[in-house]
Amino acid sequence: MKVLVTGGCGFLGSHICEFYAFRGDQVLSYDLMTKHELQRNPYSPDTAREYNWNYLESLGVTCVKADVRNAEALADHVSGCDFIAHTAAQPTMTIGLENPELDFSTNVIGGFNVLSAAHRHRIPVASCATIHIYGNELNTNLREEATRYSCEPPAFSESLPTLQGEITPLHASKMAADIYARMFIDSFGVKAASFRLSGIYGPRQFGGEDHGWVANFLIRAYMGLPMKVFHNGKQLRDIIHASDVARAFHAFYEKQVPGVYNIGGGPENTLSLLECIHLIEQLLGKKAEVEFAGERFGDLYYFVCDISKAQRHLAWNPLVSPREGVEGLLTWIKENSSLFSLPQTK
Ligand SMILES: NC(=O)c1ccc[n+]([C@@H]2O[C@H](COP(=O)([O-])OP(=O)(O)OC[C@H]3O[C@@H](n4cnc5c(N)ncnc54)[C@H](O)[C@@H]3O)[C@@H](O)[C@H]2O)c1
């Protein structure tokens, strides 16, 4: 088969490209190679930016630099494909607040163009939403334990009302794209899925303070840099390894049951920031330097996905445990430490 992966040279996109390349499929990464988020990290954005592109080319993936906001270019590249995995995005709350126009054009117009191209070419498409679209009102209903927040009920299904609480540009744009996926399903019969994703982690994640906290903590701890924890560190997610998300995309391609899906590690795979730091200290055999900062507008302190809908309709289950996945990510960071030891650019 031939698969087009928007944002293929990003973190998650690279795992989807890798998944299909390993199967021997034809893979096209369609990615604008943006750098605004990487520029906020302490290592070189250029080197980090090129890493996934070079890795994918070594697997035989065709990489093109192109924009999902350009409907014509997108339609040209979608022609002849069997499936679209849409991961290209402005994915952070902080950049969305600084540049709502970029957030809107990338996530809403780009998301619409991708769905529309799938409709025109009559092929299935799975897009990335985020659990942030549920909103952060859940923060008011949490119990504080020693190292984590807990909640009753402990996990949430797709029927949880969305946009409850404070709304940032990212909430609005990601929700709009999720609604457009449903619109294309209902009005035009497109085989579309919108994956409401929890915290994803894994190799090739150049995590920073805004996005990708597991990788951000690991890179910083390994390089001996301080980690910054916003709020008290008891924030909790059902983290999910990128390879498991890549498998979810293919599970959707195989089953093609349209709809919205919560995709996360589920109740078996939860980790708080403090617990993640503790695990990293165990793995590295040294104490990490941690700085605590205040709260951040829009942050969601607790989310665990009820993944039973994806289990039922897509016959999908996450396979990688947090300990196993974090160990694997640490191995990748150690093997590529030169990427992170470059002179500070900021
Ligand atoms: N990483 C997570 O923990 C997480 C959690 C929930 C949801 N998501 C969603 O998963 C998706 C992938 O996230 P990620 O962590 O891999 O992000 P990423 O920033 O690593 O990758 C996004 C890619 O999209 C590309 N891109 C940006 N604007 C583009 C445009 N206009 N046209 C084409 N390409 C463009 C970038 O160059 C980048 O390579 C996003 O939709 C994100 O919102 C991620």
Give a written overview of the molecule:
This protein has one domain (2-340): NAD(P)-binding Rossmann-like Domain (Rossmann fold, 3-Layer(aba) Sandwich), CATH 3.40.50. It has twelve helices and 16 strands. It has helices spanning 11-23, 45-58, 71-78, 93-98, 100-121, 169-188, 213-223, 242-255, 273-284, 308-314, 322-335, 337-340, and strands at residues 2-6, 26-31, 62-65, 83-86, 125-130, 142-144, 149-151, 192-197, 200-201, 227-230, 236-238, 240-241, 259-263, 270-272, 290-293, 302-303. It is globular. The termini are far apart. The mean pLDDT is 95. The chain binds nicotinamide-adenine-dinucleotide. The site of nicotinamide-adenine-dinucleotide has 27 residues, from helix 1, helix 5 and strand 5.
SSE arrangement:
Elements: E1 2-6, H1 11-23, E2 26-31, H2 45-58, E3 62-65, H3 71-78, E4 83-86, H4 93-98, H5 100-121, E5 125-130, E6 142-144, E7 149-151, H6 169-188, E8 192-197, E9 200-201, H7 213-223, E10 227-230, E11 236-238, E12 240-241, H8 242-255, E13 259-263, E14 270-272, H9 273-284, E15 290-293, E16 302-303, H10 308-314, H11 322-335, H12 337-340
Parallel strand pairs: 1-2, 1-4, 2-3, 4-5, 5-8, 8-13, 9-12, 10-15, 11-16
Antiparallel strand pairs: 6-7, 11-14
Helix pairs in contact: 1-8, 3-5, 5-6, 7-9, 7-11
Bound molecules: nicotinamide-adenine-dinucleotide.
